[in-house]
Amino acid sequence: MPPLNLKCSPYNKQAGAWKAGRLLDLADRYSRQILFSPIGAEGQKKLAASRIAIVGCGATGSALSSLLARAGIGYLRIIDRDYVEPSNLQRQVLFDESDAADSLPKAVAAARRLAVFNSEIVIEPHPVDLTPKNAQELLSGVDLILDGTDNFETRYLINDFAVSAGVPWVYTAAVGSYGVTMTVLPGETACLACIFPDSPKGIVETCDTSGILNSAVSLIASIAATEAMKLAIGARDKLHRSLLSYDVWTNEHVGISTVRPRRECRACQQRNFVHLAGEERPHITLCGRNSVQIHERRRPIDFDDMTRRLSPHGTVRHNEFVLKFWRDPYEITLFPDGRAIIKGTTDTAVARSLYARYVGS
Ligand SMILES: [Zn+2]
Q1: Of these four, 20, 268, 301, 303, which has the most CB atoms within 10 Å of its CB?
Q2: pLDDT on residue 207
Q3: What is the DSSP letter of 301?
Q4: Would the pTM of this model clear 0.85, i.e. be above it?
Q5: For residue 135, how far is its CA from the centre of ligand 1 (angstroms)?
């Protein structure tokens, strides 16, 4: 994993100048939010003191971090393993065409964009995959964790960490025209494993198979971001305490109470944190449509070196964050720690052999 000191000082380098010159008066910047009486000036200070981690910065993560950065949450840690692609732009509101052309890691592109509209807050980007090994390091030191991921494996990991450490977290998911969200308060409400003891196998739809409406993302991210603000200012009585789902196309909406944990829940009652222990974590996983991810290989890669090695075999391009290598019909994206996303196959054996051939075994 790249070092945690990927702090985003480059992304708020203007902050010092702004503070010195007071180009922006904070009371003025947040005036319309302070006028909303449940928040007020005191609430605004609490938002500024609040520290939030957002895991996954695709569609929901973009919407969540955008709302919370504008609202003045003082510290945002953004963890995402992926890079920006053209098909993201329809719904991932923090990214633009140049980010996709440069294949920028989403965490980095997000931090840059957020700092453009709020340089007063601290944004810490981590372009890595959240795993049982690094979860403790990446999720510690925050008041709240928000789920912007697209898979249950990572959500169970977040749930295990959050329940074991007593940190609240908000589950969100959006696919097709509907979104789902639930706020987990460890020791108080149901947790994700209370509601879904196993990955919901009936629900096999993903954004890659069922598509997604950007408005479904916005709706569910708005509810989750508001829950985050309520938690930050201590308005716990206003939390919705349900598994809330809303379909923006059919207008169906359902709320299932999460007020009480399930008595025999593996996570919050038996405190058996199998996902955090990482007993069954594979090194190679399917990752979206027609691609395979080879997880952290702990093989630091020199991009200049690798470019020289790969040039005779296909097209290679790199920036400081990712290296891309095209060899028909495959596209290999390499990260500095050796992690790779291989597009053009769903066969893990093929992916493994491509990795061994071009990167090293
Ligand atoms: Zn539970």
Answers
A1: 268
A2: 58
A3: -
A4: no
A5: 19
